[in-house]
Specification:
The chain is α+β, with helices and mostly antiparallel strands and about 450 residues long. The protein has 19 helices and 15 strands. A hairpin with a 5-residue loop joins strand 1 and strand 2.
Amino acid sequence: MQQEKEYFINGKLDENGNVEVPGCVRNGIPREDAEEIFNNMASFAEYAFNKSHAAAYAVVAYETAYLKAYYPVEFMAALLTAVIGDSGQIAKYIRNCREMGIKVLPPCIQEASSKFTVRDGAIRFGLLGVKNVGEGVIREIVRLREEQGIPDNIFDFMNNIDIHEVNKKAIESLIKAGAFSCMKGNRAQHLAVYENLIESAQSNARKNLDGQISLFSMDQSARVMAAAETGAKLPDIEEFSERQLIDMEKEMLGVYLSGHPLDNYVHLIEKVATANAEDFAQGSEDTGKLKDGMRVTVAGIINGKKTLVTKSNKMMAFLDLEDLYGMIEILIFPNIYERYNMFLTNDRIISVTGTVNFKEDEAPTLVADKIADLTDLDTKSKPDTPVAALESEPTPIRLNAQYVDFDSLTSLLRAHPGEVPVIIYKDGKGFKAEPNLWVDAGEMFVNEAIALLGAENIKR
């Protein structure tokens, strides 16, 4: 290297004294600059990939490309297993699966294993990806299937499982994740009975150890289990709403699997959004699509909010906005918070326009300057509603919320669910509340609304 440095800077002469390599100095480059350039190259050589390293990566790239092309389902199952426990990565790859036409099925007690597995051209979600479910619980489920056969219902499952290897939290999480939906009954029915079944199994296990169990000494929970053994029936309970089901899945799996709250708004999001969570996740100005100070619009569902009080005693907020690709952090300063706080409630679907803010070693945030209710935009974008439909809708109740915080108002509305539409006015603007905030506008609601808003701020 030292010899090469001499040639690089001062050049090289042949046997006859002729210039073979001119070098930097002969080319008019100052010696100090030439030294710095060579030192930079020497530093690079300390970590640059050598040929064998590059060849090894090329082989891996070729092999994985081959597997993805010819065995796409198996490849994606292995990829999902490699990131199990990382909900952000799992959501990204599930989205990739859907784009490839590959179904990702919910976890299932009857056939799932700890990892993501291939089943009839689809991918079965791995049980290890369910919150509160560990390797011990999964081993016991697999053992039950191998030794006792595949359980047909939750009663068979609880009768045959080793109650010492499972716990109440794990069973609840599996039910909420949809792992029991492959059996008879719905999720609401399973959640209604699982606690009694666990307590009964635990009681029976204790009595079996003591040798004290008998038909005549059974307590109520034991009788529940005994009834199960002779074909007990699930209670007659309606299934949860579709939104409740997918919210349970998100809670237990970290991702929306069988559906997404934004599915009905994809067409609108594609129209208004100029960036998404994947763009923000790239993180680097040098390689990513986003640049510091760039103005973009994103759209999604509010997944969390943290409020702060500034030194001037004003409210500001950090929002977690989830779109179909992941999570975006939104920073809302006091002047914007005051103007748009009526939209900043959990589960509200909004669009946010603002500027991208990069920080060193952190994912970029979006500093908001405009927020809109996406459901309101969706209503405006649809064709005019037929007159008959308008006439059939009850007369809305109008609330002036200028002098109350929006959280107090939504708490009031949620406490009186019904079919009467609600129109809320704040800062001179009016917007129609989502159907889940419509009310039963009876005497009890009106009295509570008067107490909160004042009679002059309620119109019907």
